[in-house]
Amino acid sequence: MSEENITNIPYSTEISEISELKNFVGEELGLSEWTEITQDQINTFAKVTGDNQWIHTNAELCKKKSPFKKPVAHGFLILSLASKFCYETFKLKNVSMGVNYGLDKVRFMNPTIVGSLLRGRVQLISSEEIQNGIKYKMKITFELKDKEKPACVAEFIAIAYN
Q1: Which helix (H) or strand (E) holds 129?
Q2: How many domains does the chain have?
Q3: Residue 104: CATH number of its domain
Q4: What is the pLDDT of residues 119-162, one digit of tens each?
Q5: The dihedral of CA 113, 65, 75, 53: what is its sign?
Q6: 100 inside domain
Q7: What is the rounded distance in angstroms from the CA atom of residue 154 to the CA atom of residue 108?
Q8: Contacts for 63 with CB less than 8 Å, ≥ 6 apart
């Protein structure tokens, strides 16, 4: 997608048959709404994962020692939003079962501090027919509002069966 065709208005693509997915390789599928990263989200993630590093959970210490002066979100908290952003931006109909197959080529490029606004821009990179379904890979760019560099860029792999 060329720079002049990039939209900043959230949208979603709906595809009625999984066999049509191959026609969208190289195309942007959608753009999610902005989501605010809150301290409550970060703390919940820290509690569930047992990852209570001060850089994520201790606002007072961050004011003193962090170059960002605020807590930052865990990288995997940001990646956990991949499914949400894909769901908001891409609807594949005629599916009896979908499987999150994993991530590929994850790159963290910018910290996501408390209060940041984050959204997902989703593009289809590949699709491959498999028995009774399709395996496909999407590029998700986790954009930060008012930042040139995204928080993260990752490839999200999924399988859909009909």
Answers
A1: strand 117-130
A2: 1
A3: 3.10.129.10
A4: 999 999 999 999 988 899 999 999 999 999 999 999 999 888 88
A5: negative
A6: yes
A7: 9
A8: 69, 70
Cα 26 to Cα 62, 111, 155, distances in angstroms: 41, 28, 13
Instruction: Give the number of other CB atoms < 10 A from CB of residue 128.
Output: 12
65's tokens? 């020692």
Q: Categorize the per-residue pLDDT at 5 as very low, low, confident or very high, splitting at 50, 70 and 90.
A: low
Q: What is the domain extent for residue 124? A: 12-37+82-161
Encode pLDDT of 68-95 as tens digits: 999 999 988 888 898 889 889 999 888 7
Q: Decide if 154 is inside a domain.
A: yes
Report residue 52 as tokens: 């209570």
Cβ–Cβ under 8 Å, residues 78 and 128: no
**Dihedral angle sign, alpha carbons of residues 56, 57, 61, 62:** positive
Q: What are 7-36's pLDDT values in tens digits?
A: 899 999 999 988 899 999 999 999 999 999
CA distance 44 to 39: 8
User: What is the C-alpha to C-alpha distance for residues 42 and 67, in angstroms, rounded to an integer?
Assistant: 18
